[in-house]
Amino acid sequence: MSDMFVTLGTWNWLIFGIILMALELLAPGIFLFWLGLAALLVGLISFVVAPGWQLQILLFALFAIAAVPLWRRLARANAAPSQDNPFLNRRSAALVGREFTLEKPIVGGNGTVRIDDTVWRVAGPDTPAGSRVRIVQADGAHLTVTAA
Fold this sequence. Notes:
Elements: H1 2-6, H2 10-26, H3 32-48, H4 53-78, H5 91-94, E1 99-107, E2 110-115, E3 118-123, E4 132-139, E5 142-147
Parallel strand pairs: 3-5
Antiparallel strand pairs: 1-2, 1-4, 2-3, 4-5
Helix pairs in contact: 2-3, 3-4
């Protein structure tokens, strides 16, 4: 078993790194990319310095541990909401303040309005069909309106 560790060479680390990165392509999201990057770094260092197998494994562990906070920082920076489209995935919030025509009258506090190709349920004061209403609040798929 110890012979296997003694024979760890530069090419083994490079091949191991490429295999891990290829596995990331097959199963994305497991952050094997970062482990592969750590293995590639150990392989590149081994080209220059030729450290012993103990130091190679230690370097791999250090690089892999350092990659996790780096990955989290990059993921958090890329997960910020886009300034180009602040209502992305919040379609109903983008409707607040806009005016539409009632498709069905609001009777007993409930009615419908057609927005583009979707019929939305609305709540508000009793209003006849065909009246213009302004959306004042959006909570998920529930819109609250007032007369425009």
